[in-house]
């Protein structure tokens, strides 16, 4: 929903910058590779050009990264339906996430794709396909989507040489500043983005609601949540729970753009919780993990994963996945992720914006016709998508959280006017993000006491080890929470079995990675606070109140902290703070 700047990469300083070969290390801070992938009628998907030239083959180490990227860069079997005109062009943006075969640990690469399908009766088989891909270790979707809308058309205009031109500009950028706004020059324009926090950034304390919901507190903050789930708004709270507890989810959509946007929206729902489940915005049968998943028998436990797919073959091959959500609309004229086709319930046809009137939708949900359709949909199951695409959720999960209709009734609709649809979507996304950010923050708040730091009280010596954070035991936590209750915010939005959600969360794949990260951050912050207290202490005043035994203990403590500081600073010359510690140690020697 950002306006695309007009960019010229030709002439003057821009040409000089583009002519200079980019520094590989500087480029790697942002991107692994820039590629053009072509669909060959005889040989299939081929890497037509890549910069750096060996980025896919050398990085893959024989692991087939080039083929995996190529297969992930094109729509699958049911993805796009071009209009039946003599000549037409269809552009789309989507993303994928694949294992990095060059990484010794389980790391992933993010691919951001500008795909162009051109229908022309004069061409063999009536058309052609090409994709421009940015491959990166970082999930900077807000940045790379903007960059692709510059690089994509540029590649079709000047050819593959545009890859090196843009790479030179990217290599000249400063190092990424996760969690902060940046202005990154590209040609004659600048991309203004707010990068998401780093993976090891614990985010705000669980008891503290961020003041500005527009600031990213998790991945894919730019995902168009409202457009992706416009036909399933009442199910968002169930989907939020599925993501919180780490349930496997299969997302089915007509196009890669719609399924990747929906998966990104689901991941963003649980911010600021660290989402530790494997997710694939666009998953194909060529992914190396498909062979492992395909052999799972029906009823066998499906691993925690969120898979975005367009190929209906997955509905048959992945029958053991317990949660299936279908999103989007197979609109043949769609060139981006659009809201659900058709008129929103409760909206007039005069083209003016209005409220979504979800109260009517909630009433219609319990009408006899709606109930019969719901029973039929549940009986047919996800395989009903084989004959007709419809927006629905099939799940065996019993949700605890109730839909907040007061939030839904604040949403606005653009009516039939595409001119104001974009601004309305911005407003609606802000409303939804604010609510789910508040919901997640309140859900995590009971863990706050186990992450709370302490500082030395006045009159006590900071030259002792800080107290340990309170130990965490799941059973004690659940029992204490049952006695206290969920709090005012959650009690209004959860059913009587709300404690089951905490039990599932504690047993799921998201809790321990998040808790360990927050715990480590709290311990580090506590060490910093106590170290700062040692630097600011009035040494003479403190020592004058000490007994001889306390002075000896403090002497030993200072010596221990000095050794620790020397290890941390690798024996670099002591700065002022270290000098203050030495001064205190000498003072204690004199007093003794």
TrEMBL record:
One of its GO terms (cellular component) is recycling endosome. PROSITE patterns: DENN. One of its GO terms (molecular function) is guanyl-nucleotide exchange factor activity. InterPro entries: DENND6, Tripartite_DENN. Residues 32-517 form the UDENN domain. Belongs to the DENND6 family. PANTHER family: LD41638P. This is UDENN domain-containing protein. It comes from Panicum virgatum.
């Amino acid at each position: 929903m950002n306006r695309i700047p007009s960019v010229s990469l030709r002439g003057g300083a821009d040409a000089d910058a583009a002519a200079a070969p980019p520094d590989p290390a500087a480029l790697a801070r942002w991107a692994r590779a820039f590629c053009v992938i072509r669909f060959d009628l005889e040989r299939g998907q081929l890497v037509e050009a890549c910069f750096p030239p060996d980025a896919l083959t050398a990085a893959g180490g024989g692991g087939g990264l080039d083929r995996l990227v190529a297969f992930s860069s094109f729509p699958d079997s049911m993805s796009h339906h071009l209009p039946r005109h003599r000549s037409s062009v269809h552009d789309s943006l989507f993303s994928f996430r694949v294992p990095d075969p060059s990484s010794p640990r389980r790391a992933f690469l993010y691919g951001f794709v500008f795909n162009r399908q051109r229908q022309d009766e004069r061409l063999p088989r009536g058309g052609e396909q090409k994709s421009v891909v940015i491959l990166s270790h970082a999930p900077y979707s807000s940045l790379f989507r903007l960059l692709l809308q510059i690089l994509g058309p540029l590649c079709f205009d000047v050819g593959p040489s545009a890859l090196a031109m843009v790479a030179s500009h990217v290599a000249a950028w400063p190092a990424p500043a996760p969690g902060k706004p940046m202005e990154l020059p590209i040609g004659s324009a600048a991309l203004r983005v707010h990068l998401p926090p780093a993976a090891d950034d614990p985010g705000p304390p669980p008891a503290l609601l961020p003041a500005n919901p527009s600031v990213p507190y998790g991945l894919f903050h730019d995902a168009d949540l409202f457009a992706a789930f416009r036909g399933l708004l009442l199910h968002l709270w169930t989907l939020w729970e599925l993501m919180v507890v780490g349930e496997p989810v299969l997302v089915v959509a007509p196009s890669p753009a719609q399924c990747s946007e929906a998966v990104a929206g689901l991941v963003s729902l649980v911010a600021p919780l660290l989402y530790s489940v494997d997710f694939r915005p666009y998953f194909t049968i060529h992914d190396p993990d498909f062979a492992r998943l395909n052999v799972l028998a029906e009823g066998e436990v499906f691993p925690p994963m969120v898979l975005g797919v367009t190929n209906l073959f997955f509905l048959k091959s992945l029958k053991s996945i317990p949660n299936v959500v279908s999103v989007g609309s197979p609109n043949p004229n769609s060139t981006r992720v659009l809201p659900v086709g058709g008129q929103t319930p409760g909206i007039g046809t005069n083209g003016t914006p209005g409220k979504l009137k979800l109260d009517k939708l909630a009433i219609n949900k319990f009408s006899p016709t709606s109930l019969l359709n719901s029973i039929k949909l549940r009986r047919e199951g996800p395989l009903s998508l084989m004959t007709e695409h419809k927006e629905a959720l099939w799940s065996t999960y019993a949700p605890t959280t109730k839909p907040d209709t007061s939030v839904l009734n604040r949403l606005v609709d653009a009516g039939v006017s595409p001119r104001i649809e974009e601004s309305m979507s911005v407003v609606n996304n802000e409303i939804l993000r604010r609510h789910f950010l508040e919901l997640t923050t309140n859900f995590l708040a009971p863990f706050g006491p186990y992450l709370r730091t302490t500082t030395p009280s006045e009159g006590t010596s900071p030259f002792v080890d800080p107290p340990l954070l309170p130990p965490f035991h799941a059973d004690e936590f659940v029992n204490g929470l049952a006695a206290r209750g969920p709090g005012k915010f959650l009690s209004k939005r959860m059913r009587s079995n709300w404690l089951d959600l905490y039990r599932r969360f504690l047993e799921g794949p998201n809790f321990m990675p998040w808790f360990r990260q927050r715990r480590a951050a709290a311990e580090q912050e506590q060490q910093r606070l106590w170290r700062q207290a040692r630097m600011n202490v009035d040494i003479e005043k403190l020592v004058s109140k000490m007994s001889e035994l306390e002075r000896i203990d403090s002497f030993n403590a200072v010596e221990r902290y000095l050794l620790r500081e020397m290890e941390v600073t690798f024996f670099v010359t002591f700065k002022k703070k270290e000098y203050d510690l030495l001064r205190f140690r000498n003072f204690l020697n004199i007093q003794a």
